[in-house]
Amino acid sequence: MLRAGDVGVLLSGAGLVVTLAVWAWGGEHGDTAVIRAAGQIVETASLTRARMLAVDGPLGTTHIEIEPGRARIARDPSPRQLCVKQGWLTQSGQAALCLPNQVSLEIRGRTSAYDTLGY
Is the pTM of this model over 0.70? Predict the structure, then answer.
């Protein structure tokens, strides 16, 4: 049988877990999109206005769509379409890589996000 103190401890613990989960997985929103082709930076675009970009690669043209606060690879000639399935990128450190066509899209913000490669 649970007492009032037990319920209080359980609710406090659950609240702490939810707070830490939101804090740990919530990243900074990016403000710049960095577009690369064949390892070279093709363009650095601001995420403040909507526009479409076309980037040429060995397999054809990759189309990148930018809207305020987010960017995505809309179309790509790669066979498996993995970079298109990545969807909209909004947070600093996120990236979509079209490896067969050698095109990438990365979101950057004021601070760099670290992932497991940064350790």
Answer: yes
